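Bumping with the actual sequence this time:
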Amino acid sequence: MSEKKEKKKLKERLNDKYRLTIYNDTSFEEVTTVILSRLNIFAYVGIFTILIGIITYLLLLYSPLKIFLPAYQNSELRRTIILNSIRVDSLVNEIALRDKYFENMRNIIEGKEISDIEKDKDSATHYDEIDFNKSKEDSILRQQIENQELYTISAQTETKQSTALNAIHFFAPISKGLITNKFSIKTKHYAVDIVAAPNEGVKAVLDGTVIEAGWNMETGYSMTLQHENNILSLYKHNSALLKQTGDRVNAGEVIAIIGNSGELTTGPHLHFELWHNGVPLNPESYIVF
């Protein structure tokens, strides 16, 4: 019985009414009156707390404030920030190269000396230690590979192309350079990468016309020449282009300066491609480097 009485008394206390009256301090006139109970107060406080919680949750979920939540501060967000930082830094370097390129064009027109616009070298590579001379072992290995590919399909294809092009004399695009990455159909590397001394001139392999000359994010300053017999030659990652679209060039004429422009490069070199009738050719089959 005592427990029932206590519960009844607690319920009565919760339902007890209290009057909150506000008076004018000067005239003592009654301004407003509010009648509340303990139960009403608990209900209002609970509803207010729930509303504040819902508003806070929505702000954190649909506003920029959500980045301060630990759940959103993951590795993917950090990786994106770092990648964007690298891209911005790369863009700044490319803009600097573009400005230098236009400056050199003005210097060429005015007959002044061309300034060096080569990008900073990769500190992980010691370019001064590169030997451009072919060794005896390299010549033996080259001969062994040529003998092994004598009866392959790709070799037979190149032999037919060579028969059709054997009367053409190709100039070497680099006077003195070292091939660091060879032509390969398997890896879809339809070019040879040639490392040479800084500021080495890039030459046209045949007489032709410049059908494309410009800059893009991947290959930097690049140029494409159209030659007779439906032959194309491509020169990529240059530090400067000395010809523009529509210019007529002669075989052996300097058309660009070797460089390291573009994102798809690991150091100063020339990416050289040779195409005939839409088919990539191995430049080493026609040019002595």
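The tokens above came from a reply further down the thread. Residues 119-124 have pLDDT under 50 and may be disordered.
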